[in-house]
Amino acid sequence: MNAKPLPRISNSRARRLFLHKHGLLTPPKGSGKGDDLCDVFDQLGFVQVDSINTVARAHHMILAARRPAYKEKNLKLHLERDRLVFEHWTHDASIIPTKFFSHWQLRFDRDRERLIKRWRNWHQNEFEQKLDDVLKRVSDHGPVTSASVGEDENRSSGGWWEWHPSKTALEFLWRTGELSVCRRTGFQKVYDLTERVIPDTHRTTSHDTRETIDWAARSALSRLGFATSGEIAAFWDLISPQEAKTWCQGRLADGTLLEAEIECARGDYRRVFLFPETLAELDDLPEPPSRVRILSPFDPALRDRKRAERLFDFSYRIEIFVPEPKRQYGYYVFPVMEGDRLIGRIDMKAQRDNERLQVRAYWPEPGVRASKGRLAKLEAELQRTARFSGCSDVGFNPDWLRHSNPDP
Questions:
Q1: How far apart are the first and last CA of the chain?
Q2: 239 half-sphere exposure, CB direction, 13 A CA radius
Q3: Helix, strand, or coil here: 405?
Q4: What's the CA gap between 23 and 29, in Å, rounded?
C-alpha cells in the first residue's frame, strides 16, 4: 500500500509564513516600548546581541525593523530596571524574556559539567578558589566587571584561553547561573548575584529535563513555523539534536505533529515538521508590505544562513574576518528586504562626527531591477535608518549603485 503523500507548501507560502512568524510580513508599527516591546520579544523568542556599531548595534536594529518608534532607552528599562528580559546564551549572546529564565537551568547544569573540566585543567588548582573569591566579592561589594576583578593578574585581550583566572571564574559563574548581567556600561557587561537580578518568581521555578525539552522544542517550532529536528534544536541551542529528534518522533506518533514538504527557492523540496494548525494558517497570511527594510545581519530571519539561502536564494556571510582584498562586498553589509524578498545588500556607516549616514555601495540581487520606484523606497528607508542612528542626513559615494554579484 502506497504511503499517503505529504502536504506540499509552495516557496511563496513558506517564505510568507516564516516572515509572519518573525514579525516581518506586516507593516512595522507600534510604540516599541512597554508591553508592545514585550510582545516583540515574545514573538521572536530572543534578540541577538552584537557589539559592532557601524550604524547601530544588532539588537537595536532588530527591534527597530519591527517597531520604527523603538528607542534604545526602551530596552534599557526592560533589561536594567523592570527585569522583563535577561541576557544569556542561545546560539550566541542574546536578550531573552525573563519568564523563560527557569528553563535555562538545563543550560546552567550542562555548562557546569562541561566547563568545569575545561577550565579547571586550564587554571589547575586555583580555579575553585577563584570561584569562591569572585562570588564573595560580588556578594559583599556588589556588581563587578571583568576589568574590576583580578586587578593583580596578567591581562590579555585574546580569546578565553588567555583570560586571567578571575575573568574565567566570572564567566563560569555567569554561564552556570550564579551571576547574571545586571546592566552594561558602554558595551561591557556588569555582573551581580542572580538572586539580586532575576525576580524570585522566575528564579525559583524548576523544571525537569523532560519539561524543558518539550518547552524548547515546542516553542522553537511555533516561532519557526516549520523546521527539521536539527533546526528545532539549534533555535535556542538549549537541547541536543538527538533530544529534538526524539521529541519530533514522539509528537509525530501521537498526532500532535505533522510532516510536510516545503518548496525551496531553487525548486527542490525539503521535509519538515509543523503543527497541524499551521497548515490552516497558510490560508490567512496577509500580503507582504511593499516597503523596503534594511535588516541587521543578525536578524532572527537571517540567523540561520542556510535556511535563508534555501527559502530566499540569498547567500550571505559576515566578512569582518575576511582580509579586505578578498572581501566580496564589505566589512559589515546589511541585507535589504522588499515585501517577502531579499533584494540586495548595502554597505553603509554612520559618520557620527558629521551626523551623516554614508552609503558606500548597494548591490541588488540578480534579477532585481534598480527602478526609480524601488530606489525611492530604499532612500526612504535610509532616511529612517539615519534618524535612528543619530544622523541628520544620508550621503552617497559616487559609485554607490553597483552591479549584482561582484567578483570576489
A1: 52
A2: 28
A3: coil
A4: 10
Between the CA of residue 47 and those of 38, 43, 189, 210, what are the distances in Å?
A: 12, 10, 17, 25
349-363: per-residue pLDDT in tens?
Answer: 999 999 999 999 999
What average pLDDT does the structure give for the chain? 92
What pLDDT, on the 0 to 100 scale, is given for residue 150? 67
201 CB contacts (<8 Å, ≥6 apart)? Answer: none
> Cell numbers 573569591 label which residue?
133
Q: Give the pLDDT score at 160.
A: 45
What is the separation of C-alpha 113 from the centre of its chain, rounded to a whole number of angstroms? 26
Rounded Cα distance between 191 and 100, Å, is 19
* CA atoms of 23 and 58, how far apart (whole Å): 16
Q: Decide if pLDDT at 143 tops 60.
A: yes
Q: Distance of alpha carbon 286 from its chain centroid, rounded?
A: 24
The three-point CA angle 223-56-323 to 5° equals: 95
* DSSP designation for 326: G
Determine the average pLDDT of the residues in 4-25: 95
What cell numbers appear for 161 in the block?
Answer: 584561553
Instruction: Give, for 8, the enclosing helix (H) or strand (E).
Output: strand 8-9
Q: Which amino acid is at 280?
A: A
Strands (E), 242-392: 258-263, 269-274, 292-294, 333-338, 341-351, 356-364
Instruction: Choose between 287 and 404: higher pLDDT.
Output: 287
